[in-house]
């Protein structure tokens, strides 16, 4: 018998937020942690964190996120993340909107020596010979040497390895059915297969499934957490193209479309995407092509799973920076689902006694992976700084429309299956 029994915690969701929280709690030695996830194989194929790369940047107007991102980058550079984190720097261009001007001023204030605007020749030097003759060379831009990208699937696997070292069970095929209550307090969870897991505390970190999950109905304000699909594409570079593009930084436009692109991976896959208002999914529409119904529909209709409007914009923006790549055949397309919030702020708060919700990554949480577990841990123990506790609370004013200025150029809309791009449109143009 333990003299001081550990607090029992069940974490629902084995993505970034759930896994980092579990690691932090288990490492403290004060918690008996179990992680549950609906997916039969982990990491879940359709999770936002299961990807080849995610941007890591400290480029924020918001001071809280900028400071947290700087600390995250410092930790990403550690030995623990070797082979996962790649510090390429971040190039932001098209700095004409007032928000972009404000962003540059905010980023430069944190690193006056390292962050500065670039001349056309300096943009060319950063983007490499593949940018020759591109519109990007005529746009205002700055380069931040701090930041780059992380191999996101690899980071999640490292978290799982650490959980195994700590003897934390990670239970797949564990789909939440309902919360177990004792009065108002949540004291465990019941799964769809009837299994029950009792706990002193439950952390709900279900990613984009959080806001609409039936088990959480009535606990979250309407519109606070909305699943939105964001469009992603990639091209396969030839060995000759790899020589041209291998050393480019993460690069993005500040024109309101939310376009950003990555350097190629070691295997020559170059990903580019839109961080936009995104697509909502009606109940009768599958989220991703991994859904059997979606796969059957895609095969029958000869389509991929991103709308042609987004595909056209992705190709256009890629061509503005790297003209020779814009018409290449796409290696893949993907809908990446955010747990979106209207204000772009996270949700890390108690929804009921014993139930902490950790969600609302809003497309920018992954870069904080090295510190996010500590943040959730601190909120669980009610020792998060007051201003962050208020910033990420559940009961806060919810704007009717998204208020993130970087995402206004491509507004939120429902996913229409008739709008999906054809396989021919995804081929070489």
TrEMBL record:
Say which domain of life the source belongs to: Eukaryota
Cofactor(s) listed in the protein's UniProt record: FAD
MF terms per GO, please?
flavin adenine dinucleotide binding; L-pipecolate oxidase activity; proline dehydrogenase activity; sarcosine oxidase activity
Question: Does this UniProt record's set of keywords contain Transmembrane helix?
Answer: no
Residues of the region (Disordered) are: 395-429
Pfam families from the xrefs?
A: DAO
Which range is the signal sequence, renumbered to this chain?
none
List each copy of the FAD dependent oxidoreductase domain by range.
8-376
Assigned keywords, A-Z: FAD, Flavoprotein, Oxidoreductase
| Cited InterPro entries | FAD-dep_OxRdtase, FAD/NAD-bd_sf, MTOX
UniProt entry tagged with the keyword Flavoprotein: yes
Q: Which family does it belong to?
A: Belongs to the MSOX/MTOX family.
Q: What is this protein called?
A: FAD dependent oxidoreductase domain-containing protein
Which organism is the protein's source? Trichosporon asahii var. asahii (strain ATCC 90039 / CBS 2479 / JCM 2466 / KCTC 7840 / NBRC 103889/ NCYC 2677 / UAMH 7654)
């Amino acid at each position: 018998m333990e003299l001081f029994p550990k607090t029992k915690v069940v974490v629902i969701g084995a993505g970034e937020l759930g896994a980092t929280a579990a690691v932090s709690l288990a490492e403290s030695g004060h918690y008996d942690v179990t992680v549950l996830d609906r997916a039969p194989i982990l990491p879940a194929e359709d999770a936002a964190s299961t990807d080849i790369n995610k941007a890591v940047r400290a480029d924020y107007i918001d001071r809280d996120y900028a400071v947290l991102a700087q600390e995250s980058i410092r930790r990403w550079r550690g030995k623990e993340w070797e082979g996962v984190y790649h510090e390429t720097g971040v190039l932001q261009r098209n700095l004409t909107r007032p928000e972009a001007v404000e962003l540059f001023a905010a980023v430069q204030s944190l690193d006056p020596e390292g962050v500065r605007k670039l001349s056309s020749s300096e943009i060319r030097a950063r983007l490499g010979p593949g940018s020759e003759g591109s519109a990007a060379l005529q746009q205002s831009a700055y380069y931040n040497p701090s930041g780059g990208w992380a191999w996101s699937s690899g980071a999640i696997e490292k978290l799982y390895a650490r959980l195994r070292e700590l003897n934390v069970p990670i239970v797949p095929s564990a789909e939440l059915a309902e919360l177990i209550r004792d009065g108002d307090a949540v004291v465990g969870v019941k799964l769809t297969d009837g299994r029950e897991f009792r706990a002193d505390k439950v952390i709900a970190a279900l990613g984009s499934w959080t806001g609409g999950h039936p088990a959480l109905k009535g606990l979250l304000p309407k519109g606070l957490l909305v699943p939105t699909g964001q469009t992603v594409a990639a091209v396969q570079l030839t060995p000759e193209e790899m020589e041209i593009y291998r050393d480019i930084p993460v690069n993005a436009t500040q024109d309101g479309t939310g376009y950003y692109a990555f350097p190629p991976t070691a295997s020559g896959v170059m990903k580019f995407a839109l961080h936009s208002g995104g697509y909502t999914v009606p109940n009768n529409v599958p989220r991703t092509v991994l859904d059997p119904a979606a796969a059957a529909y895609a095969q029958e209709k000869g389509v991929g799973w991103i709308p042609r409007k987004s595909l056209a914009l992705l190709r256009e923006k890629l061509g503005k920076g790297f003209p020779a790549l814009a018409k290449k055949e796409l290696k893949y397309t993907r809908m990446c689902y955010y747990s979106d919030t209207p204000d772009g702020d996270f949700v890390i708060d108690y929804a009921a006694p014993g139930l902490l919700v950790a969600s609302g990554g809003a497309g920018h949480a992954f870069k904080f992976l090295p510190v996010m577990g500590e943040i959730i841990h601190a909120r669980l123990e009610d020792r998060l700084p007051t201003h962050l506790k208020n910033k990420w609370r559940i009961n806060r004013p919810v704007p009717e429309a998204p208020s993130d200025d970087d995402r206004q150029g491509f507004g939120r809309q429902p996913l229409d299956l008739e709008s999906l791009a054809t396989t021919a449109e995804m081929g070489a143009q």
